[in-house]
Amino acid sequence: MEATPIGRTAATRYLAAFGLSLLFNPSTPAMAFNPELHSAYALKAAQAFQRCPGVKLPVQLGEALADGTDAEDSSPRTILQRATHWHFYNRNEKLEPFWFFERNLDAIFNKRIKKLNELLVKPDADPVEVYEQAGRVLHYIQDMSVPGHVVPAYHAKLPGNPADPFDEFESIEALPVFDLSDAQCQALRDEAGKADANPRRFLDAAATATLQAIEQIDAAGKPVVDGAWKAYWVYPARDTDEARKGWGQYGTCEFAKGNVNAGCKREEELVALFEQQSRQAQRNSVLMLFYVQKKLAEAGQKNASAMANQ
Predict the structure, then answer these.
(1) InterPro entries, per this entry (predicted)?
(2) How far is CA 10 from CA 95, 146, 224, in A?
């Protein structure tokens, strides 16, 4: 079945999502991993990070990172901002603003990065505030592990707009334990230590990896025709008007457990993809932690150094 119909006019769908989000739901109309998964990924990543050689991260800073990832979907203080700034990837730079809606994540992501950069260069910044803001930035990078956000396929967790089925597929308790070898830790440290490393590069790399995982692009970034997951995500949208605006759409198979229809994948294949993408989100969370610690060290952040030595 169609997971999210694309036939309604754009204006009707967008305005309905905006109005209902303000009335009934504190979450963004484009929520990916649910807030519990966002924060759980961040906490599990912080725990794996702490096991890497030569690393010190106070528990309260790992918790602050997780709080930031959660707040980006659930804080009442930014409900209007979230309702008008959606979390979809601006694939091919085609997903342009619509009235007062930022349909892609670029504007809000840049805003969150700007605030983080300001905190990272303050020698006396509150470390908890730094890591919470890093979590807000990380939230969008984690979102890029959700195919519906990268394709992008419109969805909203609101009446008449079903939530993304990938988001609802599995609980954190059902996922394999996340851990990193010393070599994997070093690879992430090296990646974060590059001169051109920054959150935007991390986000674009995550989006590219997801599009490759669902076989919409190949290793060279070229479009793939008839990829293995074409029954689940389609790009561009079949509706020419929606395609012109930059949208993809959900396919004829729903990413959910249960009866398998003809042409749909077996449950174990869905589980394998979800676990792969969950690991990607957690790996990128560790990458963000290495990046933040590098930037704090460069700035001589006194408070963070003191906390790490406790």
Answers:
(1) PLipase_C/P1_nuclease_dom_sf (IPR008947)
(2) 13, 22, 27
CATH at residue 268: 1.10.575
* Residue 178 covered by a domain: yes
The angle, 0 to 180 degrees and rounded to 10, between the axes of the packed helices 267-299 and 182-193 is 60
Residue 173 lies in a domain: yes
pTM: 0.88
> How many domains are contained in the chain?
1
Helix runs in the chain, H state only: 10-24, 35-50, 59-74, 79-84, 106-120, 127-143, 147-150, 182-193, 199-213, 240-244, 267-299, 302-308
pLDDT value of position 168: 84
Spatial separation of the C-alpha atoms in residues 274 and 21, rounded to whole Å: 27
DSSP string, 222-280: -B-SS-TTTTTEESS-SSHHHHHTT-BEE-SS-S-SSPPPTTPPPHHHHHHHHHHHHHH
Predicted pLDDT at 161: 64
CA atoms within 13 Å, Cβ hemisphere of 99: 8
Q: Could you list the residue range(s) of the whole structural domain that residue 112 is in?
A: 10-305
Distances (CA, A) of 21 to 17, 31, 158, 161, 186: 6, 11, 7, 11, 42
Q: Is residue 1 part of a domain?
A: no
Q: Could you tell me which residues come within 8 angstroms of residue 220 by beta carbon, excluding any fewer than 6 positions away? A: none
3 inside domain: no
Residues lower than pLDDT 70 in the chain:
1-35, 75-78, 80, 82, 100, 157-162, 259, 302-310
Q: How many CB atoms lie within 10 A of CB 30?
A: 28
- CA geometry: angle at 38 spanning 250 and 228, to 5°? 30
Largest CA distance in the chain: 60
For residue 32, what pLDDT is reported? 54
User: What's the pLDDT at 11?
Assistant: 43
